[in-house]
Amino acid sequence: MFAALALACAGVAAYDGLRLRRAQQINEAVTAAAHSAQAKGAPRVAAQGEAAQGEAREVRLAHAVALSKQGAYDAAAPLFESLVRDGPLDAAGRAALFDLGNLYLREGIGHGTPGTIVAPPMIEEAKARYRALLRDDPDDWDARYNLERALWLAPETRTAADKPNITEQHDVKVHDPQSKDLP
Questions:
Q1: Rounded distance, CA 64 to CA 77, Å?
Q2: Does residue 163 belong to any structural domain of this protein?
Q3: Based on the domain organization, do 66 and 101 belong to the same domain?
Q4: Angle, in degrees to the nearest 10, between helices 91-109 and 73-86
Q5: What is the 3 state secondary structure string of the chain?
Q6: Of 23, 57, 4, whose CA–CA distance to 12 is shortest?
Q7: What is the greatest pairwise CA distance in the chain?
Q8: CA atoms of 68 and 52, how far apart (whole Å)
Q9: What is the reported pLDDT for 60?
Q10: Is residue 94 included in any domain, yes or no?
Q11: Are residues 114 and 147 in the same domain?
Q12: 15 belongs to a structural domain
């Protein structure tokens, strides 16, 4: 019985050791990506990110975050989108979805005066990303806050054209019960 217990503990230790080694490899790849981003600039990191589809999702996420921090939004957005689209919505996918919403929100607000909106379609894209994230995890308070902020910047209120026509709703036509026509 002691030997079986020792064997089970050894199996758990081996599994944890493999997970630790994998985490160290991912950390090394993320560190290398960060160093190459600082040394070579955004266009080179974008090329690495596109070529690195076989890399771990965490490494691809690190590439996208590094591009976003450098201001290379056009290169970061496709990487974030590929993380959301290519796999299950795990932790890396949710982080990519959140960061993509933030990226679109920043682009929508722009660098103008506070409260002004430069690109309303980008804010709508940000709202869509936050809503997708909240469908997966309704308790994500950061996504709720950012969605509320986006809704405050670009409210979704009904306009006069969106209101239903009351007279059309009251003009109900009832068919004659004697007729053989279908309603």
A1: 7
A2: no
A3: no
A4: 150
A5: CHHHHHHHHHHHHHHHHHHHHHHHHHHHHHHHHHHHHHHHCHHHHHHHHHHCCCCCHHHHHHHHHHHHHHCCHHHHHHHHHHHHHHCCCCHHHHHHHHHHHHHHHHHHHCCCCCCCCCCHHHHHHHHHHHHHHHHHCCCCHHHHHHHHHHHHHCCCCCCHHHCCCHHHHHCCCCCCCCCCCCC
A6: 4
A7: 89
A8: 17
A9: 86
A10: yes
A11: yes
A12: no
Residue 171 lies in a domain: no
Q: Please enumerate in sequence order all residues whose Cβ is within 8 A of that of 83, keeping only pairs 6 or more positions apart, or say none.
A: 57, 60, 61, 64, 92, 93, 96
Which pTM was predicted?
Answer: 0.64
pLDDT one digit per residue (tens) for the chain, 183 residues: 999 999 999 999 999 999 999 888 877 877 776 666 566 554 444 444 444 445 678 888 888 888 888 888 888 899 899 988 887 788 888 999 999 999 999 888 876 556 667 788 888 999 999 999 999 889 999 999 999 989 988 888 766 555 655 555 555 555 555 555 444
Residue with tokens 């690195």, as numbered in its chain: 52
The answer to whether 77 and 103 have CB atoms below 8 angstroms apart is yes
Contact 77, 55 (CB under 8 A): no
Asked if 27 and 67 sit in the same domain, the reply is yes
- Residue 34: domain span: 21-72
Distance of CA 182 to the CA centre of its chain: 49
